């Protein structure tokens, strides 16, 4: 698990002019190949989206209901 906030700090510095108060972290993966693995590691992110073979996108996990 990542315990260092270097990425979070860098992202906040990038968007500081836009008054961003919250940033959610997520990943997008091919649904067919990675759904089981995404379920295993979902505690590391705020959301996971899957991309299907036809190009459609589905939500696999959305902890804060941001999608």
Features:
alpha+beta; 3-stranded mixed β-sheet; elongated; 67 residues
Q: Mean pLDDT, nearest integer?
A: 86
What is the percent of helical residues?
A: 25-40%
User: What's the arrangement of strands in the largest beta sheet?
Assistant: 1-2-3
What is the number of beta strands? 3
For this structure, the quaternary state is single chain
Structural class: alpha+beta
N- to C-terminal separation?
24 Å
Tell me the β content: 15-25%
Shape: elongated
**Uncertain ranges:** none
Characterize the largest beta sheet: strand count, sense, and whether it forms a barrel. Answer: 3 strands, mixed
Structurally, the number of domains stands at 1
H/E topology pattern:
HEHEE
Number of helices: 2
Radius of gyration: 14 Å
